[in-house]
Amino acid sequence: MLMTLWLRMCVLLGKAVLFVVGLGLLGWAVATAWSAWQHRGPVPAQEQIPTDEAAMTRDVIQTAVRIVDSHRENTRYLRDAHAKAHGCLNAEVQVLQDLTPELRQGVFSEAGKTWQATLRLSNGSPYPQFDSLRDARGMALKLLDVPGTQLLKDRQSRGEQDFVMFNHPNFFVSDVAEYRQNVAAQADGKKVMAFFPGWDPRTWQVRHLFIALATLAPAPASPTQTTYFSVSPYKFGSANAKFRVAPDPDSCPVYTLPPQNQALPNFLRSALTQQLSTDRVPACFVLQIQRQDPSQYMPIEDTSIEWRESDAPFETVARIRIPAQDFDTPAQNLQCDNLSFNPWFGLEAHRPIGGINRLRKAVYEAVSDYRHARNAEQ
């Protein structure tokens, strides 16, 4: 009797599980179809600026400053994102010799030109944490001694061109309005619930939650084995484009990184030290662009949309070489902490475009000024 009842309960439970799974699959299929129907081309090739964007930007700045205040390390004020660096490295960026005329734009105008650069590799979290925890990983690249008029008036003597990237092709928010809501929730300690701002299912950002979960990836074996994306678009001469930096092992000596102790809090820094300082083996990347085709669904104002390679392939414009070097010293680490990277540090030919980039301009400036002013008081 009890056995029969138990078997019937198991059968009912199995059917219930199958029903829930089937319902979930059906919901996923409907959501995918709805998303595909919504996200169709063509799209504008020019920016579309909301009238209330300035007010929303001020709110984001206040939240970002609050994050900096709450996440300082001892007496030093850290970045509001990508606070923990694995290292700042000297690098060389060489433009390809055989670029077609339409790819010879801005810092890529001179075939074969080699730029000296500084490259910062980091975790994405706004406070330092163990490298083994799931996190975004970032690369910020600064080309040095770049001639020409800078985008920002107070940077004319700096001669920089920055490229700021992280390890996922699209962002977990679409625009400034959504970023304001999400970052305020994150600052209040909400994580998953930041994507569910109310009881109305129409406000739920389920697709963006999955993007965020995919972005918070397990740590790579080394920062030199990761691909980094600009996520947001930029001008590329008269075109619009996104950037990508991908490992290029064929351009460097063959190297196998010895296994690292991933229980250590800073094992990604250790991996860089092992390769560049101990084994004296350089690391290589390619710098690529993906040009917008406005006849396809490749929007400027929505950074949650990945531009499909089937619509526009990536094209290599330069190679990056990180030579063997000693970089992990107290003086260099302090200098690394004081460096500022900003996609608006650069030339008109590579002007950042879209709402998230316009937001970056205001927030980066405000937070950087606040952080450096507070650190100067220490």
> What would the principal axes of the Cα set say about the shape?
globular
Number of strands: 9
Percent of residues in helices comes to 25-40%
Q: What's the N-to-C terminus distance?
A: 77 Å
Major sheet details: 9 strands, antiparallel
Features:
9-stranded antiparallel beta sheet; globular; 32% helix; 9 strands; 7 helices; alpha+beta; Catalase HpII,  Chain A, domain 1; 2 domains; 378 residues; single chain
What does this 3D model show about the protein?
The chain is α+β, with helices and mostly antiparallel strands and 378 residues long. It folds into 2 domains: 1-36; 51-376, Beta Barrel (Catalase HpII,  Chain A, domain 1). 32% of the residues lie in helices and 17% in strands. It is built from 7 helices and 9 strands. Strands 1, 2, 3, 4, 5, 6, 7, 8 and 9 form a 9-stranded antiparallel β-sheet that branches. A hairpin with a 2-residue loop joins β6 and β7. α2 packs parallel to α3 (176-187) and α2 (53-70) packs parallel to α7 (355-376). The model has no long low-confidence stretch (mean pLDDT 86).
Q: Brief overview, please?
A:
The protein is α+β, with helices and mostly antiparallel strands and 378 residues long.
Question: What layout of secondary structure does this protein have?
Answer:
Layout: H1 2-38, H2 53-70, E1 85-95, E2 114-123, E3 137-143, E4 161-166, H3 176-187, H4 206-215, E5 228-229, E6 234-236, E7 239-247, H5 267-278, E8 283-291, E9 315-322, H6 330-338, H7 355-376
Antiparallel strand pairs: 1-2, 1-9, 2-3, 3-4, 5-7, 6-7, 7-8, 8-9
